[in-house]
Amino acid sequence: MSELPPEVTSADPAICSSKETQDSQTCDSDTLGIAQIETNDDSLPSTPQDLDSSEQMQSQEIQHPASVQCAAFDYIYAVGQVEIVFPNEGIKRQFLQAAMELAVDEKAYYEVFTNKSLAIGDPNRDKYLYLAEQVSWTLVIQKQLSYHLTPATKVELEALIEALQPPKDTLELVYTCVIGHSSNNHDSNLAEIVCHQVYHQTLSELHNTIQKISSAETNAIQDVIKALEVEPNAGRDDFDRAKNFVAFRYPDIYLQTHKMRLGSATVPSASLTDITFSQFDAVSEHKIVDITLTYKENASAKHHYYFCRIDVSGLYPFINTEIQQFLPLLNTIPLD
């Protein structure tokens, strides 16, 4: 198992867009699941950076210069809640009139924009789409209006509309992930994101998706979400972009944590205690983030260490190195 499989539409929270690998190395579709890892310490690299140089070169063999050139904008992978703002009184009154015609609440944005929740593809669904095209879309992060959102195509607009649909039978927040790049084309005090992919889910939906794909149990999933500190963030820096990607799109970290909790004949049960991020200083133009996971055996003071690498050079982060075990240098091992 590597990244989540390609999605059909960008609004589907359960599966990952094939766009996410368009500028990346192609992962072998046959390598589903995590291979058994040798636990003989002598066979392990002493740090993630100490992997054999030939392996490093192999993992970076496919170059995409266009995705790593210095751009005049920032790549964004933000997490927040989508809200709309009426840019003027005329649009607001048009919306209220549509809500009255449909006999829905004046804040039932999803129902108005979709003509009372008609399916995508239904020709009558787009009756009020002109309103969705003219309102201002925003992303709220930690209760602050943080970004103005500009959908690149109708696909992203539909995904933003879907993010407005209230979840059923729960008061949970809907986490909307927005992948795009910054822009200065909008006359607003807010930073602008041109959205190239939008997907959303509650944490419960994320939990159910990860459980279905990886078979990880609830405690393991909660351990990873807690250690990653998954919460709304601006997704501008490399670490936040890597974190948001693995939290929502890389189920293997949940599966590995599940396996560690269960234990095996060679490795006793261990719990996830920490996840850290660092820059990987490779001889490459690519921006690569090392993610280190630390597990502590439940019946002893012994620790086990795993890492993976995420390439955040381009618009869509991707797995540079799959999760695997390593042995840290002695002076980096925590003392209990």
UniProtKB/TrEMBL annotation:
Q: Which residues form the PatG C-terminal domain?
A: 217-326
Q: Where is this region: Disordered?
A: 1-61
Compositional bias (Polar residues) spans? 42-61
Record-linked InterPro entries? PatG_C, PatG_dom
Q: Which domain of life is it from?
A: Bacteria
Every PatG domain range = 75-200
Pfam families assigned to the protein according to its UniProt record, in alphabetical order? PatG_C, PatG_D
* Protein name listed in UniProt: PatG C-terminal domain-containing protein
Organism listed in the record: Pseudoalteromonas piscicida
* Organism ancestry: Bacteria, Pseudomonadati, Pseudomonadota, Gammaproteobacteria, Alteromonadales
